[in-house]
Amino acid sequence: GRARLSHSDPRGWDGRVGPEEEVEEEGWHGLYPGHIRTSPLQKALLAAGSAVVALCDPYRHDMVAVLGETTGCLALPNLRDKMRHHPEGYRILQERPRICLSTLDMSRLRELPDGSLGREYVRFLEDNKVSPDTRMPPKFVDDEELAYVIQRYREVHDLMHTLLGMPTNMLGEVVVKWFEAVQTGLPMCVLGAAFGPVRLSARKLQVLATELVPWAIRSGLNASCVLNVYYEQRWEQPVESLREEIGIFPPP
């Protein structure tokens, strides 16, 4: 029942296997394309350095990514197990879907009715001028299946913004991080939720503390695991219906 590849299986995220000779010619010897082997000490140094940089500049997505990979040794297996024991999550682990421009039919999503997940997701991307292709591939996760789990988490992050109704400014990112911290237990999310508010104004801090954080925490605790939703097969579903199904309370 484990959707895992052997160390010698040169399979990409799409599940395709290339010629063995080609892999050897490229010098690829990791657990998956792009994997970099690191010792526990190296991971600790990477975690410390990336945490400092990310706290100084929360928009350094490369450092946030490294922090997530080097500190997720307990949270990622827990998320993987939740997916394994859920029918939809297990299918995701088996099929390895990707959310990127090469897999999305953006024209079709734009034509979906207002209020549907697909239409609102595209609206979020366009309004905030973001692209699903900006998510970095994992490098420092020493398990092929767990590497996919953190990749999947990164690729559904914008969908969390869509479902929670939060923009990509600092206030919106902090709210999403509170929800994700409760949902995933990833230390990177916890740090972002705890230290992100230091850059907010007093007025925004008041709104955050009195309304948004309590709502995000309650929703995170009440919701089922957000990685167990096959979003690619839910584009036509109304956002409100999906929120209710997952257990996310309506935004305040």
From TrEMBL:
Key words of the record: Lyase, Membrane, Mitochondrion, Mitochondrion inner membrane, Ubiquinone biosynthesis
Record has Protease as a keyword: no
Entry's Gene Ontology BP terms: ubiquinone biosynthetic process
UniProt entry tagged with the keyword Cell wall biogenesis/degradation: no
Gene Ontology CC: one annotated term: mitochondrial inner membrane
Any one Gene Ontology molecular-function term assigned to this protein's record: lyase activity
Pfam families: Coq4
HAMAP family: Coq4
Name of this protein: 4-hydroxy-3-methoxy-5-polyprenylbenzoate decarboxylase
Native source species: Grallaria varia (variegated antpitta)
